Amino acid sequence: MAELEDLNGKWLRALADLENYKRRTERERRFWTASAKEEVLLSLLDVVDDLERALSSEPDAGADGDVGFRDGIELIVQRLAEILRGHGVRPIDALGEEFDPTVHEAVAQVESNDHAADAVVEEMRKGYMIGDKLLRPARVVVAK
Predict the structure, then answer these.
(1) Residue-wise pLDDT tens digits, 65-117
(2) What is the pLDDT at residue 62?
(3) What's the confidence (pLDDT) of residue 28?
């Protein structure tokens, strides 16, 4: 009888170890999947930045009236924004907000009579959240 109780105890411990192993490996799998997703999304954000810079430097229409190029880039930017939203990525509102070191990265500070102290006066690069987690901080210029 004592041998049976001993074997039963060993079996229960082994079963508990197996359950703990399953939970730990599932938790690790979710962590690595999220990390890989964030890496890919960060790369896409760099592409979005490049396209937005191209749009801001390109006049509305060239000398020959070619608006098609600009329209194409705008469609690409819109499509990338849809993809990012579909993955839970959303931009951080920075312009005019009070500087928040948890979501903003200050790259410069300027004197300003038009803005309150510590207000974001210019956004150098958009920041993004994925769910409640910071994906990339916004690079901003802050008023003194």
Answers:
(1) 566 778 888 888 889 999 899 989 999 999 989 999 999 999 999 998 888 88
(2) 53
(3) 93
DSSP category for residue 128 = E
Give the residue numbers spanning the domain of 130. Answer: 91-144
pLDDT tens per residue across span 85-98: 998 999 999 998 99
Contact 122, 104 (CB under 8 A): no
Residue 123 maps to a domain: yes
* DSSP three-state, residue 105: strand
Can you give the CATH number for the domain in which 118 is found? Answer: 2.30.22.10
Q: Could you give the CA distance from residue 121 to residue 98 in angstroms, rounded to a whole number?
A: 9
Indicate whether 135 belongs to any domain: yes
Sheet holding 133-136, edge to edge: 89-91, 128-130, 133-136
HEC string of 31-55? Answer: HHHHHHHHHHHHHHHHHHHHHHHHH
CA distance 139 to 133: 17
